[in-house]
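Researcher: I've been going back and forth with a colleague about how Anhydro-N-acetylmuramic acid kinase might be arranged in three dimensions. Neither of us has a model we trust, so I'd like an independent prediction. The organism is Pedobacter chitinilyticus, in case that matters for your notes. Sequence below.
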Amino acid sequence: MKNQIEDFYQKSQKEEKLIIGLMSGTSMDGLDIALCSFKGHGSNTEIKLLNFKTGDYSETFRKQVKGIFSKREVDLEMVCLMNEQVALTHAALINEAIAEWGYQNSQVDFIASHGQTIYHAPKSLHQQQGLPNGTLQIGDGDHIAVNTGIVTLSDFRQKHIAAGGEGAPLAVYGDYLIFSKTGEDRIMLNIGGIANFTYLPGDLDASKVFSTDVGPGNTLMDQYVQKHFEGLYYDKDAAIAKRGHVNSALLEALLANDFFKAEFPKTTGPELFSLAYLELAQQESNTQNLSPEDVMATLCHCSAYGIIEAIKRALVKLSNPVLYLSGGGMHNPLLLSLLKQELPQISFKTTADLEIEPDAKEAVLFALLANETLSGSQTYFGEREGVPSVCMGKISLPK
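Model: Here is an independent structure prediction for Anhydro-N-acetylmuramic acid kinase. You can compare it with whatever you and your colleague have in mind.
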């Protein structure tokens, strides 16, 4: 153990570190793998995205994860087994990516693994008296470390909760260090399963920075497509939604939840925005007989509304901000057109304009969180609820 700790210490002190960041989101379309080079830390961080790919999941693996995903009652044996299986699958995909990029595993210093979220339970969602915020990501870090031979940092969200946060969103930490720019107010909008954004002030005052979930991004649309359109996992190019018409009664029912009115920062997940949520909204609006195309069109407008209204609330204090997009939802042309139509005062760009591939952004952010922990640094965000100034990630040694 002493030799391993000494080796870990030497790697953490390197002037330039190679860190692989991993992200597997609620869509479960694959594992995002980002190989990054880091120099420095904190506000002096220099980062380069060297390689990126999304490793494909098998249909069997995807079904196994979905069998325990976002459900209040599951087979506990499968949760136990999939904690290991997710890690083994991720380790195999990492090994393949490293070889494909022409590296040896020994050249990579660290892995930063987000894991696979299977349940997210902030107090605002579970509402059980006397119980804390909770979240659970599976994909054990020890298994990744042993099967890749690379020191692995994982389970980042637990420290956030332990220090008073809700475990999400964590983008605020990386967004501030990577993307802040003097003289330009920025909104970093990520449209994944859940849509969230980070506000970055042009005066670089960390105490003003905040990140918040705003509502469903792709999760409701993806879940509906997977149930009603065999062989499809998402509505590519909004082809289905474009054939439908928005139903105002259903849209109103979808947006009636108190989450949309809650103050920032807030967090949510597919535990709330599920097919059961849609079914209840259809019952309340008497719209059970809508065509699948009309439902998809309405779900797309629901996602757009949550984003639009949240950004409008933030705009009260801003002038001429620039919005930078990332996440799978940015590829939905109908969703994007709705955002641009309702937010004409905002300039829309993507993180590619900031030299980070949009689809890689979340994986890169977890690599940065690992770099901050390895450097022993933490940015002070002020004494604010929900944004603790902490280092995150448990450390797993390969031997």
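Researcher: What would you highlight for our discussion?
Model: I'd start with this: Residues 185 and 202 are 4 Å apart (CA to CA). After that, consider the following. The longest strand covers residues 110-121.
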